């Protein structure tokens, strides 16, 4: 949320109610700003102002940066009619403010970063920033040297005009590789392996932009990033 902002927007976002309900509450004198009742919908407020709705303080939580160990079966979306989302795993206030910095498929596990800082997530997700995402992949068959060269040069994905940006490939074992990519196209790792005639069996994201998944986090658990982790991507 950018400040200053409209009072009705502040209440809607942080009280997690529709904007129409926020406007109605203001008009009915249920809202105070720094102790004074106001009916001004577009009144400009900041994070320093004390906003109360029905006598309860609405608190701005500030910028938040969260690391989550995503389990299988969850989708990276704010809401979904068919599946649980990664946000369902969080127990935090003002959830509507949060967004996901780089999505994972429903069957992919590992590091998901969540924040309410749009400029910060842009640093991570924009291919122009050249921030690597690191994946551990179990594959159906060993890679040939020519396959590795193709992946590290750029491959043609089905339905795409441009080649992928160069990746980095580490062969850990015949059926296990570590792949570092700077893009985040739909199903990209799976499509890259398919482009060289292979198949991903399991996929786990280990790191994003140098932020590594905390080994102490069990699947479904999360923690806030340290200040050093936050600033490391800038």
Could you explain the architecture of this structure?
Helices cover 21% and strands 27% of the residues. The protein starts with a strand and ends with a helix. With 234 residues, it is of the alpha+beta class. The protein contains 6 helices and 15 strands.
Name its key features.
alpha+beta; single chain; elongated
Helices and strands in order, then pairings?
Layout: E1 5-6, H1 7-15, H2 19-27, E2 31-33, E3 36-37, E4 44-45, E5 51-53, E6 56-58, E7 65-70, E8 99-101, E9 109-115, H3 118-125, E10 133-139, H4 145-153, E11 168-173, E12 176-181, H5 188-195, E13 200-208, E14 211-212, E15 222-224, H6 227-232
Parallel strand pairs: 9-13
Antiparallel strand pairs: 1-4, 2-3, 2-5, 5-6, 7-9, 7-15, 8-9, 10-12, 10-13, 11-12, 13-14
Helix pairs in contact: 1-2
What is the radius of gyration computed over CA atoms, rounded to a whole number of angstroms?
A: 22 Å
Let me know the average pLDDT: 95
**Outline, from the CA principal axes?**
elongated
Q: Summarize the amount of helix as a percent range.
A: 10-25%
Q: Order of SSEs, N→C?
A: EHHEEEEEEEEHEHEEHEEEH
Strand content: 25-35%
List low-confidence stretches: none
The secondary structure category is alpha+beta
End-to-end distance: 20 Å
Biggest pleated sheet: 9 strands, mixed
In short:
The protein is α+β, with helices and mostly antiparallel strands. The protein has helices at residues 7-15, 19-27, 118-125, 145-153, 188-195, 227-232; strands at residues 5-6, 31-33, 36-37, 44-45, 51-53, 56-58, 65-70, 99-101, 109-115, 133-139, 168-173, 176-181, 200-208, 211-212, 222-224.
């Amino acid at each position: 949320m950018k400040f200053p902002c409209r009072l009705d927007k502040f209440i809607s976002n942080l009280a997690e109610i529709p904007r129409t309900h926020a406007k109605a509450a203001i008009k009915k004198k249920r809202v105070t700003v720094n102790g004074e009742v106001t009916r001004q919908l577009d009144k400009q407020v900041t994070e320093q102002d004390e906003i109360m709705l029905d006598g309860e303080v609405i608190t701005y939580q500030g910028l938040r940066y969260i690391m989550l160990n995503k389990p299988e079966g969850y989708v990276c979306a704010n809401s979904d009619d068919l599946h649980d989302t990664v946000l369902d795993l969080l127990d935090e206030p003002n959830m509507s403010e949060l967004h996901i910095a780089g999505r994972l498929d429903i069957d992919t596990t590992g590091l998901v970063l969540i924040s309410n800082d749009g400029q910060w997530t842009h640093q991570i997700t924009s291919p122009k920033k050249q921030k690597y995402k690191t994946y551990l992949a179990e594959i159906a068959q060993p890679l040939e040297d020519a396959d590795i060269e193709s992946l590290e040069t750029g491959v043609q994905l089905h339905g795409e005009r441009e080649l992928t940006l160069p990746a980095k490939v580490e062969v850990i074992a015949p059926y296990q590789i570590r792949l570092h990519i700077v893009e985040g196209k739909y199903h990209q790792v799976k499509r890259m392996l398919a482009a060289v005639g292979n198949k991903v069996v399991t996929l786990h994201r280990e790191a994003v932009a140098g932020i590594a998944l905390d080994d102490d986090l069990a699947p479904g658990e999360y923690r806030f990033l340290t200040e050093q982790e936050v600033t490391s991507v800038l």
